[in-house]
Amino acid sequence: MTQASSAARDAPPPTTDATVGAEWWRSAVIYQIYPRSFADANGDGMGDLAGITSRLDALKQLGIDAIWLSPFFPSPQKDAGYDVADYCDVDPLFGTLTDVDEMTDAAHSRGIRVIIDLVPNHSSDRHPWFQQALAAAPGSFERDRYMFRDGRGPDGAEAPNNWESVFGGPAWTRTVDAQGTPGQWYLHLFDSSQPDFDWSNPDVRSMFRDVLRFWLDRGVDGFRVDVAHGLVKADGLPDFTPPGSAGSMGGQGTTDSTAVLAPYWGQDGVHDIYREWNQVLAEYDGQRVLCAEAWVDPLQKMALWVRPDEMQQAFNFPYLETPWSGAELRRIIDESIAAFSAVGAPSTWVLSNHDVVRHASRLALTQENPQGHGIGPETADRPNIDIGLARARAASALMLALPGGAYLYQGEELGLPEAIDLPDEARQDPTWFRTNHERYGRDGCRVPIPWDADAPAYGFSATGASWLPQPDDWAPYARSSQLGVAGSTLELYSRALWLRKTHQLGLGAIEWHDAGDDSVLWFSNGPITVVANTSDQDAVVPTSLSEATRALESAPAPDGGIPADSTVWFLTP
Ligand code: GLC
């Protein structure tokens, strides 16, 4: 057995783009930037566009292909910018349109593509259209752009139906006119400050085609489409009681293709919209993309979003939700590849984002924790930090060996855990307020990331300000503590990305081998053979690999085995 050098960047990956012969997004690693929490250039404690530009070299060095930015548009920030008041401008919190252009140019000059967030299901209640709708009469064209309805019961005092908001509480709010008289109700699948558009209205469709063109003209490479399964609601808005956790984003973890769909998720009509958008993108050169946030299952249904005339990618949430179990991971990997390849699309892989508990904590939870509920000081099931980190490193090393596109969430390359002990008064997620503090929500994965162990706010902001407080014990996670340090999580990611690109794993195919033990995954993708051990016992190296070079290890293996909760990549001739 030979040990590969741990120097991740001993030679640059081939300069031939890994996309030769295939569109870039089929194999891309896309890094999610949460602008509020990435880097703050002006010292106000809120990350901004200039901060992103200033840190692009670090991302280049990491080896990613593209960035996706969560929203930076003008917004009252009731849902951290997913409440958009103007789709074609920048919130002063984050900078200006010029800053977007500079950031995009700076990314492009480094070979990094730029994807931005598009939020079409709802606007902010401060959007001019909604303000006009409130001022207009029932039945007016202004109201028809949103979902206004009369209430039920005498005086219309009951909501038009029983739907619940994803963030808790009813999905309807009653309007009150200037004289204080209660009026119609409007639908909001999320916060009451996020009224849902009516996508049967041609004005709404045409406005969003213009929004796409506005940003495509500015040179962005594509859009991550928020709540891409929610835009169309079933006729008549029938009552519905979800089978799983109330207020979920959909996707109840079912493999049953006949399972009843919520009348607000995954309706067939959404596909016409994406066919239209596909045509808009096709007017532009440079392989622009749409990526769906569509929490629908089974995977065969999700794959409908990425048929050849619709979007290019969809986040593989069933993969994200799979527990750290060899048998379950193998099943979901096979199902994902089969479902997406049946429509000619690559699978994607994702383990963390700004809506879920960071996987360095989530993978050590022992009880069910539905998406969006979060964990906090009173959570009984407090994850073991060492087990969580070991599993996260192993899970990421496994993910990055799979063919298709992969999404990373800022900070996971540092091994960041969820910030559990945020003080109540610091929390900002609407979920926390709409459930009367019953659900912690998503703030714990949104804390500004640490760059420099010794600087104020760990280098996030020169003044030390931070819109969510950073834990006191994050210095070891800072980039400065890990860069060039053999065995660090940052070096593990850099090396995995370098090997992935060098051997074109994103365009490869996997072949399973029988490890004789369900908890051990063993497969090859081209010259890389991966063994992932999900059990809490060390596993032995399969005999056929005993002479192979160990190209990557997620955990130290002084005895040459496959330690518990670890993944090893072997380079085979
Ligand atoms: C998506 C976003 C989430 C947001 C919600 C409403 O799920 O990822 O952060 O709260 O949509 O826009």
Summarize the structure.
The chain has helices at residues 49-54, 56-62, 97-109, 128-135, 202-217, 270-282, 299-302, 317-320, 326-341, 359-362, 385-399, 430-434, 479-482, 489-502; strands spanning 2-3, 29-33, 66-69, 113-118, 148-149, 172-176, 182-187, 222-225, 289-292, 313-314, 348-350, 405-409, 510-512, 520-525, 528-533, 549-553, 566-571. It is an alpha/beta fold and 573 residues long.
Shape: globular
Q: What integer value in Å does the Rg equal?
A: 23 Å
| Hetero compounds | alpha-D-glucopyranose
N/C terminus separation: 13 Å
Task: Compute the number of strand runs.
Answer: 17
Main structural class: alpha/beta
Helix residue percentage: 10-25%
State the helix count: 14
Explained architecture:
The chain is an alpha/beta fold and 573 residues long. It is 23% helix and 13% strand. The strands form three sheets. It has an eight-stranded parallel beta sheet with strand order 10-9-8-4-3-2-12-11. It has a six-stranded mixed beta sheet with strand order 1-16-17-15-14-13, covered by helices on one side. Strands 5-7-6 form a three-stranded antiparallel beta sheet, with no helix packed on it. Helix 3 links the parallel strand 3 and strand 4. The protein is globular. The two termini are 13 Å apart. Alpha-D-glucopyranose binds next to loops.
What is this structure's SSE topology?
Blueprint: E1 2-3, E2 29-33, H1 49-54, H2 56-62, E3 66-69, H3 97-109, E4 113-118, H4 128-135, E5 148-149, E6 172-176, E7 182-187, H5 202-217, E8 222-225, H6 270-282, E9 289-292, H7 299-302, E10 313-314, H8 317-320, H9 326-341, E11 348-350, H10 359-362, H11 385-399, E12 405-409, H12 430-434, H13 479-482, H14 489-502, E13 510-512, E14 520-525, E15 528-533, E16 549-553, E17 566-571
Helix pairs in contact: 5-6
Bound molecules: alpha-D-glucopyranose.
Alpha-D-glucopyranose binds next to loops.
